[in-house]
Amino acid sequence: MVKKKKLSPVQIITLSFAAVTLIGAVLLSLPIASRGGEVSFIDALFTSTSASCVTGLVVGDTYSMWSPFGQAVIIALIQIGGIGIITLVMYFLSVLGAKIGVKGVFMLQETMGADSLSGLVKMTRFIAAGILIVELCGALLLMPVFIPDFGVLRGVLYSFFHSISAFCNAGFDLMGYNGGSSLTAYCGDIYFNIVICALIVFSGLGFFVWLDLLKCKFRFSKLSLHSKIVLVTTTWLVLGGAILFFILFNNSAAAADLSLSEKVTASFFQSVTARTAGFYTVDLVNIGGAAQMLMIVLMLIGGSPASTAGGIKTTTFAVLILFVRSIFSGKEDVEVFGRRIEKNVQRTAVAVFVLYLGLALCAGIAISAIEGADIVACLFETFSAIATVGLSLSLTPTFSETSKIIVIVLMFIGRVGGITVLLSLTGKKSDSAYRYPAENITVG
Predict the structure, then answer these.
(1) Cβ(71)–Cβ(174) under 8 Å?
(2) Cα within 13 Å of Cα(338), Cβ side
(3) Which DSSP string corresponds to 266-284?
(4) What sign does the CA torsion over 52, 53, 59, 65 have?
(5) Which residue from 278, 287, 269 is spatially nearest to 189, judged by alpha carbons?
(6) Which residues contact 443 (CB under 8 A, 6 or more apart)?
């Protein structure tokens, strides 16, 4: 009798995201979901993947292409993808009083990237409640902007839609209602920019950092090493990214008609959104090649672990920088804030970086060859896809089906996690019982 092989937690996580994506694609392919009748299944699958993987890349303007039903499906997929299907299921099970077994807790640990199994079920309640409360607050803060522009009913709906999209770092918008392009109409609105940026940054910090800040009463010295690295790295990336973007973008065609205050606001917004959100307030096609390359770097880094953000993550980037610093300073250990970072963490950081960089580069080159398009523009799209950012140089809607499939795969890998996808395909391998003899090679 053949023993049935059980699915591992990583395989269940991967399959659950795939199932949600396929269900979303079926719903979006229905005639009722679009304004112009039926949409091809590949476009429905692309949109569903982009929404459930909280990316934001689109094959057409969300308002013009999708009916209210289709938009409702999209925002539901964004919410599910932002919270995480496993986290959402475990939350409802815990609320209903159902017993969550060891395998369920292991799945939570895998999907959250937690170090410990302790308190994970309780944490799902905190995450779900926290997300809904913050999204409600974000919607209330956006209403004074959207209601005067779109009327009460549409203004309220737009406030909730964009609050959820911003907090989940999805980047979907409904500005096509007035012929707009993302959030360019609000480039100079400082209040609006602050609200959207706050939603993006807050969610991008990660659930573990939220809990740690509350537990330590916002005292930096009491925080865990993880939280310290996330907060410091995020601050440097936001401020450094804004300064560099301002310098590179200042004399571009996109900045020609902007005042100094609008340039500063736009630079700060693009620095924040480039690392995961997908909204934009200036024409990215005309910001110049140097600014576009900066945004590619920021997109690759992304947000922080256990958040709605994508990318290699701020902690991975920080470990890589600290690793390089330790080599240049001649130190054996990677150290920061009086702590030593373990070798296995360093290895994982290098593996994640190489995996994401390699996939995005190979996909960009492949799409450039398939479409005959500019390589920088193609790389912008592929890095945006694998980092689940959603920023675009308006190239994605012109892609052939082959290129769209490549981007779909990148978005899926970026949301589920490259290591998780690989493990779900290959299974975890135990360490070998033997080791080969060591021999040095020359590098550098």
Answers:
(1) yes
(2) 4
(3) HHHHHHHHTTTT---SS-G
(4) positive
(5) 269
(6) none
Q: Give the position of tokens 């969610």.
A: 203
Instruction: Report yes or no: 397 and 42 within 8 Å, Cβ to Cβ.
Output: no
Which residues fall within 8 angstroms of residue 349, CB to CB, at 6 or more apart?
A: 312, 315, 316, 319, 320, 323
User: What pLDDT does residue 415 have?
Assistant: 83
What is the structure's pLDDT at 243? Answer: 96
Profile the chain (444 residues) by mean pLDDT over runs of 10 residues. Answer: 59 81 94 87 95 90 93 93 66 55 55 55 73 93 96 95 93 80 90 95 87 89 92 95 94 90 94 90 92 94 85 92 91 88 89 92 96 94 93 91 95 79 57 67 71
| Residue 37 phi, psi dihedral angles, 5° rounding | 95, -150
Q: Which residue has the tokens 């190239």?
A: 395
- The string of DSSP codes covering 337-378 is TTEEE-HHHHHHHHHHHHHHHHHHHHHHHHHHHHHT--HHHH
